[in-house]
């Protein structure tokens, strides 16, 4: 944490696209409101980009997802999110869908290399002796919001965190979840360089995030969330 020229504390941190747009907004709003004398610099990027920022010292910590080595970082678990396969409720599949291989005839909407969301899919496919190249067509997009919009327009299928579509589904059940029990919850992490700074100065922000996550889960029980169309 640094201080500005006016002596105000400045907290600089990074978040991945999905986390920044969907998963952390309630906690961030609460933290900003309760710290009126603090300035914030929030950087967006994929997982690999944010880890590079950490090594360069341009951010204090990052909230990321995906697969990476934690040897050089101090980590804390923020929350778990379901990782799901999604298609438009109006989508007509080329084949009957019973497994991942049945989806390879579809157009896949996918994040760019370096994205934690993509890394999770890559690992999952590898366990089935598959890769993203097995899909008939690929659309690589560096923005999760654009992927969600294209899903709504029935431009393909995708694999992403449930949080990316959950809020919109409360308004309109426009998509269906595929294989609801195939993927376990994926963990979102606080990551910081192993220093006393990380242990002391991110604790308050971390605890705010955890409290908001618990409160949000309590206030929005499963029975109050409109059920998606399950394929």
Instruction: Give the mean pLDDT.
Output: 75
- The portion of residues forming beta strands comes to 25-35%
So how many helices?
A: 8
What is the top-level CATH class of the largest domain? Answer: Alpha Beta
- The proportion of residues forming helix, as a percent range, comes to 25-40%
Termini Cα gap: 47 Å
Q: What class, by secondary structure content?
A: alpha/beta
Order of helices and strands: EEHHEHEEEHEHEHEEHHE
Judging from the principal axes of the Cα atoms, what is the shape?
globular
Point out poorly predicted stretches. Answer: 195-201, 210-231
CATH architecture of the largest domain: 3-Layer(aba) Sandwich
Number of domain modules? 2
Query: What's the Cα radius of gyration?
Result: 19 Å
Please provide the count of β strands.
11
Strand count, sense and barrel status of the largest sheet are: 11 strands, mixed
The CATH superfamily of the largest domain bears the name Periplasmic binding protein-like II
Predict the CATH topology of the largest domain. D-Maltodextrin-Binding Protein, domain 2
Topology, please?
Elements: E1 2-3, E2 9-15, H1 17-23, H2 25-33, E3 38-44, H3 47-56, E4 61-64, E5 73-88, E6 107-110, H4 116-126, E7 137-140, H5 144-152, E8 157-161, H6 163-171, E9 175-178, E10 185-193, H7 196-201, H8 203-219, E11 229-230
Parallel strand pairs: 2-3, 2-4, 6-7, 6-8, 9-11
Antiparallel strand pairs: 1-2, 4-10, 5-8, 5-9, 5-10
């Amino acid at each position: 944490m640094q201080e500005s020229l006016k002596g105000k504390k400045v907290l600089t941190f990074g978040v991945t696209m999905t986390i920044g747009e969907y998963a952390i907004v309630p906690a961030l709003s609460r933290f900003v409101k309760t710290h009126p004398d603090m300035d914030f610099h929030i950087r967006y990027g994929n997982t690999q980009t944010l880890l590079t920022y950490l090594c360069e010292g341009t951010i204090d910590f990052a909230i990321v997802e995906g697969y990476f080595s934690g040897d050089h970082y101090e980590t804390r678990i923020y929350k778990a999110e379901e990782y799901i396969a999604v298609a438009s409720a109006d989508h007509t599949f080329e084949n009957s869908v019973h497994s991942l291989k049945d989806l390879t005839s579809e157009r896949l909407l996918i994040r760019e290399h370096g994205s934690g969301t993509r890394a999770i899919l890559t690992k999952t496919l590898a366990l089935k002796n598959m890769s993203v190249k097995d899909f008939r067509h690929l659309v690589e997009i560096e923005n999760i919001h654009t992927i969600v919009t294209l899903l709504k327009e029935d431009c393909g299928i995708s694999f992403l965190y449930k949080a990316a579509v959950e809020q919109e589904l409360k308004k309109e059940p426009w998509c269906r979840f595929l294989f609801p029990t195939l993927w376990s919850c994926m963990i979102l992490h606080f990551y910081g360089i192993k220093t006393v700074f990380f242990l002391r100065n991110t604790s308050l922000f971390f605890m705010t995030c955890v409290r908001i996550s618990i409160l949000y889960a309590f206030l929005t029980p499963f029975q109050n969330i409109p059920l998606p169309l399950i394929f």
